[in-house]
Specification:
Structural class: alpha/beta
CATH class of the largest domain: Alpha Beta
Strand content: 15-25%
Bound molecules: adenosine-5'-monophosphate-propyl ester
CATH topology of the largest domain: Rossmann fold
Helix content: 25-40%
Strand order of the largest sheet: 5-4-17-16-18-19-20
Number of domains: 3
Radius of gyration: 24 Å
């Protein structure tokens, strides 16, 4: 493939070219895709307005590039291999031809049910092939998909439906997750009680859980598919037409809808996929993420399919029915590239070597890590016990907003270093700044990570609120995109991500805004005020520690804590449940009324030997009480 980098010097050369002349660089890559009409301008941007446009004037459909383009050469190649939750159930393999038919068919279902270009469609589904078919079907007809992770609660789902005024929801009767069956259709029904925009719900039959089908609104997926054929002419999209919205947490307010558009996202996800993972044409690639997150979008569905790869989807969890499930799947399908999150690695490491022993794992060539900093111990365990010392680890740093991998080794080409994301991909210009926005040049520096030139798959706006996009990403350091992450550039010029510098906690690789969790806690009628911070957690990376002031009157402390945890679970979802709740008599506040989180973080980290300057506190006496009650 023309854009596949084959060795380290080629990487350095590509990087130089991408900086010296970005337009020529990206144009050369773009030329390999199928366009209905070519562009008039490669890039146009003004960060002060969060204005970024790539390949203006061009027309295309991303599914023609992910599917139709491969039919002649790769039609019979497996596109998606699906492994169910239960190892005794048969898996499904869809070739490019079959996937193309299913996507066209589903596009016709959408059209039949009144979906038009620009309409928003929510996907709230388990990890089944229909989830990918749904995404691609939307893209085929020009509808904007917004996948909501199926672990979110009905109220979180309703917030997202209402924010983007979705017309349709795609879901299933239930989800298999380990030993559990989750009644997701019920969650959708509850959410829709407070959503006016949705007029159709399509339900995939998966668990045969009994569901209530509301007349005039709810339809079975298989019945609708039975009414259409599989001939579908893809909608012609403009380069900057919206492809999808994905909600993610920030340091303030409700989750925001990160918007990605068509052409730039397409080019960058394919380019980064083939280079980071060094995918070869007969490889079997497996990313264990859920399509509810950006990793699932870019590196289960779009990137691999655009590159003509075989991509796996796994419905289940790493520990069901046993802690060797991942490794069993690797052997069963002879997986070559395996991409997962540090939290999964740490969780499996905790089971010891025994679950790995029955498996050879000799098909593996590349291991990947994403979502949070990978600690050195987990890196070495992964390298030694899973990669058998021979597989390079690509520690890929990126974000929902970046659309694709930004800083990462290229597998087997870039020399790796534990816990370091190493070097930027071609076209990516990281810059480290201090608190005032001054650039920290050279090696051995530490500061805030920004990117000071656009790349094709970057965020275009936050849905329905462009000012929020400007304020969140482009105002802290004018002229740059601010990532919210701290970073170190070491003596080798390698980047090491240090974690978030804002009020965002990274729990098991999932982003949680502290304000969002606090708002949920505050919904409990007995809660007066709360403050949430992150603390180091052995498996999850970070845990959620909640300090809560309560009216204790008629409840025991233990009951109250339980109720608080279940309130958060109900309002956001189980992933946001606090790991620790401490009932406190007060919160340390400055004279201007601001909570001094620094102190709360230190207490949560059990590091109270030096709390720094507390003289500006309005209520210094409360600190000692908090330390005494700490968990
Ligand atoms: O803090 C960084 C962390 O995850 C954040 C992005 O989260 P999200 O948008 O949910 O996307 C996760 C999947 C791309 C980043 O701001 N993060 C992601 N990858 C890494 C990481 N931290 C350290 N090392 C990584 N490889």
């Amino acid at each position: 493939m023309l854009t596949k980098i084959e060795n380290l010097s080629e990487y350095f050369l590509s990087y130089e070219k991408s900086i010296a002349n970005p337009e020529t660089f990206w144009e050369r890559i773009a030329n390999q895709f199928f366009w209905r009409k070519k562009w008039t301008k490669v890039v146009d941007f003004d960060f002060s307005r969060a204005h970024v446009r790539w390949f203006e004037g061009a027309q295309l459909n991303i599914t023609e590039n992910a599917l139709d383009r491969h039919l002649y050469t790769l039609g019979d190649k497996p596109a998606i291999i699906w492994e169910p939750n239960d190892p005794n159930e048969l898996g499904i393999t869809l070739t490019y031809k079959q996937l193309h038919e299913k996507v066209c068919e589903f596009a016709n279902v959408l059209i039949n049910n009144g979906i038009e270009k620009g309409d928003r469609v929510i996907i709230y589904m388990p990890m089944i092939p229909e989830a990918a078919i749904a995404m691609l079907g939307c893209a085929r007809v020009g509808a904007v998909h917004s996948v909501v992770f199926a672990g979110f609660s009905s109220s979180a789902l309703a917030d997202r439906i209402n924010d983007c005024e979705a017309k349709m929801v795609l879901t299933s009767d239930g989800n298999f997750r380990g030993a559990k069956v989750i009644p997701v259709k019920e969650v959708v029904d509850e959410a829709l009680e407070s959503c006016k925009s949705v007029d159709t719900v399509l339900v995939v039959e998966r668990t045969k859980t009994e569901v209530i089908m509301e007349k005039g609104r709810d339809l079975w997926w298989h019945e609708e598919v039975g009414k259409v054929d599989f001939v579908n002419k893809a909608e012609v999209m403009e380069s900057e037409d919206m492809l999808f919205i994905l909600y993610t947490s920030g340091s303030t307010g409700k989750p925001k809808g990160v918007v990605h558009t068509t052409a730039g996202y397409m080019i960058y996800t394919q380019y980064s996929f083939q280079n980071v993972f060094q995918y070869n044409s007969d490889d079997i690639y497996w990313c264990t993420a859920d399509v509810g997150w950006i990793t699932g979008h870019s590196y289960i569905v779009y990137g691999p399919l655009l590159a003509g790869a075989t991509t796996m989807m796994f419905e289940g969890v790493p520990t069901y029915p046993h802690a060797g499930r991942f490794w069993e799947i690797v052997d069963k399908y002879q997986v070559n590239q395996f991409y997962t999150a540090p939290t999964a690695i740490r969780a499996l490491e905790a089971f010891g070597q025994e679950p790995i022993e029955p498996y050879k794992l000799d098909s593996l060539k590349v291991l990947g890590s994403v979502g949070e900093p990978i600690n050195e111990e987990a890196w070495h365990w992964y390298h030694t016990h899973i990669g058998k010392g021979k597989c390079p680890i690509v520690d890929t740093w990126w974000q929902t907003e970046t659309g694709g991998i930004m800083i990462s080794p290229l597998a087997g080409l870039t020399p790796t270093k534990p816990a370091h994301a190493t070097l930027p991909l071609p076209g990516i210009r990281p810059i480290i700044v201090d608190g005032e926005g001054n650039e920290l040049k050279g090696k051995g520096v530490e500061g805030n990570l920004c990117i000071n030139f656009p790349w094709p798959s970057m965020i275009r706006t936050t849905y329905g609120d462009h000012d929020r996009c400007i304020n969140t990403y482009f105002s802290t350091y004018p002229g740059m995109y601010f990532t919210g992450d701290g970073v170190k550039r070491d003596e080798d010029g390698y980047y090491r991500i240090l974690g978030r510098v804002d009020d965002v906690i990274n729990v098991s690789g999932h982003r949680m805004g502290t304000a969002e969790v606090e708002n949920a806690i505050n919904e409990h009628p007995k809660v007066i005020e709360s403050a949430v911070v992150g603390y180091p957690h052995e498996i999850k990376g970070q845990g959620i520690y909640a300090y809560v002031i309560c009216d204790m009157e008629d409840r025991s402390e233990a009951n109250l804590k339980k109720e608080i945890v279940s309130t958060v679970s109900k309002i956001i979802g189980p992933i946001a449940k606090p790991d620790k709740v401490q009932i406190v008599p007060g919160l340390p506040k400055t004279r201007s009324g601001k909570i001094m989180r620094r102190i709360l973080r230190k207490v949560a980290e059990k590091d109270t030997s030096n709390l720094g300057d507390t003289s500006t506190l309005l209520n210094p006496e409360v600190v000692e009480k908090i330390i005494q009650g700490a968990q």
